[in-house]
Amino acid sequence: MAADFEKQSYWHKRFASETAFEWLTSSATFMRLVEPYLSASTDQRILHLGSGTSNLHVRLREKGYADVTNVDYEPLALDRGREIEERFCGDVVMKYAVADVTRLRADLSAPSMFDLVLDKSTVDAVSCGGDAAVLAMAKGVRECLAPGGVWISLSYSGARFELEDLPFDVCVIGNIPTPKTKVTDPDMYYRCYLLRPR
């Protein structure tokens, strides 16, 4: 039976004991695809959706980007994020906000305009709630983007954003090979999408 990835109760139980986990691929691999979209100026405003127990935010900070808002709808995940930042960086300077990514404008108390939005398979968890949930996430991201801003999303699905009324133009900027259990397994890939507002 599939896990209830769209339910907060699933994540509360999971984050009660989980201290670190990387979805689909390492943050270092994901960062190689993100780097071309990081501005030369490190004051770029970044929104990290479904931050969970990933160390992606630390990878960003190592490159000098500290204006990062890490969002998760499970408070325990944000506690873990702060712990990871302090352990690797010696202090906590990033922002952490409890928010449901399908209700971003309502949940972010002082919604900012972001230059770059990142999600590392959060859209896959949201998709367990159906296409309407993914569209709600997409519309919320669109409302939070500053002019010229983009959304980069990593997904296991090659058809994740094939949705009517999606307020973005979508292209694949990277394919990451999935792990094989046998040499004879077919070649399969995770997709890294670039979404530009329409």
TrEMBL record:
InterPro entries associated with the record: Lys/N-term_MeTrsfase_sf, Methyltranfer_dom, SAM-dependent_MTases_sf
Origin: domain of life: Eukaryota
Pfam families: Methyltransf_31
Record GO terms (molecular function): methyltransferase activity
Entry's Gene Ontology BP terms: methylation
Domain Methyltransferase: 43-157
Keyword Transmembrane among UniProt keywords: no
SUPFAM superfamilies xref list: S-adenosyl-L-methionine-dependent methyltransferases (SSF53335)
Keywords of the record: Methyltransferase, Transferase
PANTHER family xrefs: METHYLTRANSFERASE DOMAIN-CONTAINING PROTEIN, SAM-DEPENDENT METHYLTRANSFERASE SUPERFAMILY PROTEIN
Annotated family: Belongs to the methyltransferase superfamily.
Protein name from the UniProt record: Methyltransferase domain-containing protein
